[in-house]
Amino acid sequence: MNRLREALRSPRTDEGFSLVEVIVAMVIFGIVSTGILTSANIVIRMTADNRSRQVAVNLAEQQLDTDRGILDPFDVHNIPATSTDLPLTQRVSGRTYTITQATSLVSVDGSDITCGSSSTVSYRRITVKVDWTGRLPTTAPVQSDTILAPNGRINDASTGSIAVLVSGASGTGEQGVGVTVSPVSGGATALLSQPAATDVDGCTYAFGVTPGTYRVAISKPASKDQLQNSTPTTGQQNEPADLVVSAGGTSPLTFTYDQTATYPLTYAPGSGAVLPDKMATTFLSAGAPWSSDETAAPQNSIALFPYPSGYGVIAGQQADPNTRSLCAAEDPSAWGSAPGVRAGVRASAPGQTPGGTSPAVAVPMGVFTVTAPVLSLGNTYVTAVGQSSTDNGQPGCQNTETFTFSTYLAPGQTRTFALPYGTYRLYAGGLLGLTTSGIGSPAVKIANSLYNGPLSSITSGGLLTLDPRPAS
């Protein structure tokens, strides 16, 4: 009995775990479980990535097999290029694979050369790269390359080659440009066939060319070069010289040529002024200045090479293919600041993408009104003869122009006219272009302060000054 009582009085030993012990155990279990799940997830992702990489390898090899099946290495191009090329993406097992392809020409010594290089072309190097969605950062895209050789020789030791590269305004190749090669002298002969149109790299070649001098012309609808020529041709003024082809060599030629941008023009907008019957408009850019036809009516829209920096626009002829001196006074920016006035500013046309259309360009001009005599016997025609003047800080005029207006004035009628900036002597007559009877103040008035600066004036002897400088 005593032993039983002692056993009943002894401390209990089945108290269990405390709350702290339970929490610690759960934390340890969570850490271990997270590590196991993370490791499992990494293993799953790596396994999937390896499968994706194998798919990418197969796609790259398929692309190279397609390229090898093309017998002409000049028919293999970069991808992406146009929507008609091979698919740029493929969907396999829920993942998207993107295929890109880079190509380069290879010279006889194995080095890569650019299209239009003077080095002799022997092969084409092709590099295919395949990337995919969900690729691990530690995994590189698949890349594979090969050398493509033609069935026959590209070059011959007794003949030469012509390499033509056509670049657009952005500096990238211009596709689909037609190229014509014609013999000029030095033993040159007509080609058996003309080169193909330029490829997506802007490149084309003529092989088997008899040594001699050749003329090369390029063309494409609605396109111009930096000199605003629609069909640039070697040997023309300001264009590259004719090509001399040597046996065993490649003669390179580069053009800058692109689809034109359209520039609508409004002259002295809002003034309602009558424009001269014939007047050029000048466009100044990063390249050579260019003027429209001075023997034609002012154009209300013109297509030009799409310089990214745009154009400065001037009413009047500031660019001359015959390199004669022109009238600086027609350019508003040539009029510097003077007491009471600020320097003049020419119109600006913003840069446009190839094929784009600019907002209408407001071209400033000097504006004035003329009132015909009430007692005149017939209609009155106005003629303006340019003068060279440096009064009040004018820039002068090296080669003056004469402007006529076929829009006449009835007896007592008043009309508003516009002219390029500068100084003119005005005449009125019953026939167009007569310069026998001068007209001046008070029949002539300076009109529309929006275009004429405060120093614009008209003398009683008919000397009209149209000054572009605004008041300071």
Automatic annotation (TrEMBL):
Residues 225-239 have a biased composition (Polar residues). Keywords: Membrane, Transmembrane, Transmembrane helix. Residues 220-241 are annotated as: Disordered. InterPro entries: N_methyl_site. It comes from the Bacteria. This is Prepilin-type cleavage/methylation domain-containing protein. Pfam families: N_methyl. The chain crosses the membrane at residues 20-44.
